[in-house]
Amino acid sequence: MVYILSFFLITNNIYVVKKNDTPAQILEKPIVKKELKEKILKFFAFFNLTKNVNIGDTFLFSDTLIIYKKDILKTYYFYIKENYVNLAMPFYFLLKDKKVIKGEIDNSLYSSMLSFGEKPKLVSMFAEILEWDIDFFTESYKGDSWFCYLEKICLVNLDSETIPYDYEKIFAVRYQGKIGNFYGFYYQDFFYDFNGQSLKRGFLRSPLRYSYISSYFSFARFHPILKIVRPHLGIDYVAPQGTPVSALGDGYVSYVGYKGGYGKLVEITHPNGYKTRYGHLSRFGKNIRKGKKVKQGEIIGYVGQTGLATGPHLHFEVLKYGKHINPLTIKTARYKILTSKELKEFQIIRDSLIKILR
């Protein structure tokens, strides 16, 4: 496979699927003979691929071989000889392997995990477990250490070569850093901290992955555009244009549209008297409309600088029973509370997992 791929890279006969592409259109690009094209398309129809090519899928072409690659498990080799086409597909065994991986932060959690050969997906899985306790974009430091006990899925080919493929499940995580020591233990579909408290809370720590905070909650702030002192009843998170913005918690959209200095604004009403507002958006999330129910973490818009804004950022507000409060000080209830019986069972599992994480 390495030699085949090297040939394609040298000859540059590679096509990456774009929006609205179909197999029939793609096969016209290298000028595949009509009778061969029809035979190849029959294979596509047989495997239900005619309408299932996805953006980012890859086609590789030569005179005697066409490769269509969706992912490592779904790669199709069309061998061409004169007017005949033969299809071959690689065969793999699936192997599940439980193991502990650990590392130290040099630049970021992302770069640290990838330096150990892990995939971005694991970074997201790990960060999502502890996201209510630590913001890995602003609160991780060089020298911090991380531990993860998980089940990995590997592919084994007929030559007994093992290829990392995916992550099945995380059982426990630990992050030991400058701002504290954090644990996450999987139990009954949720993650819990060392004391058996549910890690998931009613609200996320922040609604986006931001670079820094440019303006804090204040009752007397000098406005950079209006040149006057007035209250700034929210937080300004600076982030690149187009950064996804997520709902802080479950609720429903009570306003979506353009509103004065806010520019493009989404307002979400949450249980227990809370409302959150997301301003200066460049655009709204897919299907975001007034009355729509949203889940915690669901994308409701993208960072922009509409309205009164000097640059791309999110203006974020939190209200409780109609009164603005500082978003950095809100504390909401844990998502799930264990019974005394469940807590005892959890503690047994926790103690066994701690030994593995060391």
Topology, element by element:
Elements: H1 2-11, E1 14-16, H2 23-28, H3 34-46, E2 58-61, E3 65-71, E4 74-81, E5 84-88, E6 93-104, H4 109-115, H5 120-130, E7 145-156, E8 162-177, E9 180-187, E10 190-192, E11 212-215, E12 218-222, E13 229-232, E14 235-238, E15 244-246, E16 251-258, E17 264-269, E18 274-284, E19 293-294, E20 299-303, E21 313-320, E22 323-325, H6 340-357
Antiparallel strand pairs: 1-2, 2-3, 3-4, 4-5, 6-7, 7-8, 8-9, 9-10, 11-14, 12-13, 14-21, 15-20, 16-17, 16-19, 17-18, 18-20, 18-21, 21-22
How is this structure best described in words?
The two termini are 39 Å apart. The chain is globular, with a radius of gyration of 26 Å. The strands form 4 sheets. Strands 11, 14, 15, 16, 17, 18, 19, 20, 21 and 22 form a 10-stranded antiparallel beta sheet that branches. It has a 5-stranded antiparallel beta sheet with strand order 1-2-3-4-5. It has helices at 2-11, 23-28, 34-46, 109-115, 120-130, 340-357; strands at residues 14-16, 58-61, 65-71, 74-81, 84-88, 93-104, 145-156, 162-177, 180-187, 190-192, 212-215, 218-222, 229-232, 235-238, 244-246, 251-258, 264-269, 274-284, 293-294, 299-303, 313-320, 323-325. The model is unreliable at 1-11 (pLDDT under 50). The protein is built from 6 helices and 22 strands. The protein has 358 residues and is α+β, with helices and mostly antiparallel strands.
